């Protein structure tokens, strides 16, 4: 996050804070113009990071506000861009005819996500704040730990998150907490990519905790962290695209969208995030099979409505009307 502030402070925030929270002029008797000039000079003298604002760049309140704005815009933009791409280019919209697909579901998923995002961002703020104030183990130059560590730390990041998210998710299915925290995400039996952030805020926060904690217990290069962090957001969207590819050899190892589709249908299987090994090891893995594809039930409904033929081919509706 310090990278985002390094870019956006000179570009936007310095001017914005100078406008909304200007440096207070020091009252000096006599020439008013001189007084204002002297005030600004005094403010500059107080902190070289002021840039005309009473809140210099390292002011904690300013950092909180800036970080909230950045995470809010960043998370919303990522969500809409990648969910829309996945929805229009990957998601099979015939699934919307599935009997368990809710009325106005996409709209409900978007509203639920937009409610959750600001709360998740506020809850996550202390982590980002600690990062920009230099309390984390994020480092800038690869030479500090070397190239081998760059690769090892990426692998550790994936393993740590996979195990932690598996167990956080699995524990969220415990009856004592399920209905309070995780049930809202299981409202979507047949999810679309827009369900990726449609969580109770505490659920979204709990499942993102491992990423944030990692950089306080293990050194990670900061640009790599940004890349991995964004990749995780995109991955979360992709596993909600309902694609039931089965039989691909990678499906043995990767927690594919097909696995997560089965999690939404059967609840107590496939809790994983990236890989299937936690589910296999702790006996909750359900491999995707063609006969479990929710598209089968969606096509049944489409056949009843006369939208597709027995083989699932679309029946042109104009032609049907003229017959
Ligand atoms: Zn889900
Ligand atoms: Zn779940």
From TrEMBL:
Localisation per UniProt entry: Membrane
State the GO CC annotations: membrane
Tell me one Pfam family matched here. Answer: FA_hydroxylase
Domain Fatty acid hydroxylase: from-to ranges? 155-281
Q: What is its main location?
A: membrane
Task: Spell out where the chain crosses the membrane.
Answer: 65-90, 110-129, 149-168, 213-238
GO terms for MF: iron ion binding; oxidoreductase activity
Q: What is this protein called?
A: Fatty acid hydroxylase domain-containing protein
């Amino acid at each position: 996050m310090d990278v985002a502030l390094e870019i956006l402070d000179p570009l936007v925030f310095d001017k914005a804070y100078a406008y909304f929270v200007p440096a207070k002029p020091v009252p000096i008797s006599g020439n008013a113009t001189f007084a204002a000039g002297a005030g600004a000079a005094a403010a500059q003298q107080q902190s070289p990071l002021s840039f005309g604002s009473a809140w210099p760049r390292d002011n904690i309140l300013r950092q909180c506000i800036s970080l909230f704005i950045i995470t809010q815009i960043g998370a919303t933009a990522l969500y809409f861009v990648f969910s829309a791409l996945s929805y229009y280019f990957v998601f099979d919209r015939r699934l919307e005819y599935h009997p368990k697909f809710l009325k106005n579901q996409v709209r409900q998923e978007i509203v639920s996500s937009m409610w959750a995002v600001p709360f998740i961002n506020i809850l996550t703020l202390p982590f980002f704040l600690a990062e920009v104030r230099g309390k984390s183990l994020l480092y800038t130059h690869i030479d500090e730990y070397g190239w081998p560590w760059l690769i090892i730390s990426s692998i550790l990041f994936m393993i740590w998150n996979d195990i932690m998210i598996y167990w956080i998710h699995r524990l969220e299915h415990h009856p004592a907490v399920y209905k309070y925290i995780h049930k809202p995400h299981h409202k979507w039996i047949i999810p679309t990519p827009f369900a990726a952030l449609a969580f109770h805020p505490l659920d979204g926060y709990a499942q993102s905790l491992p990423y944030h904690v990692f950089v306080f217990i293990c050194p990670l290069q900061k640009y790599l962290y940004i890349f991995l962090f964004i990749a995780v957001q995109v991955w979360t969207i992709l596993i909600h695209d309902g694609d039931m590819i089965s039989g691909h050899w990678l499906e043995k190892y990767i927690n594919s969208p097909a696995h997560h589709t089965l999690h939404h249908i059967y609840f107590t299987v496939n809790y994983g995030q990236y890989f299937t090994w936690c589910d296999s090891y702790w006996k909750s893995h359900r491999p995707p099979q063609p006969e479990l594809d929710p598209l089968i039930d969606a096509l049944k409904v489409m056949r009843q409505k006369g939208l597709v033929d027995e083989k699932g081919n679309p029946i042109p509706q104009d032609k049907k009307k003229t017959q």
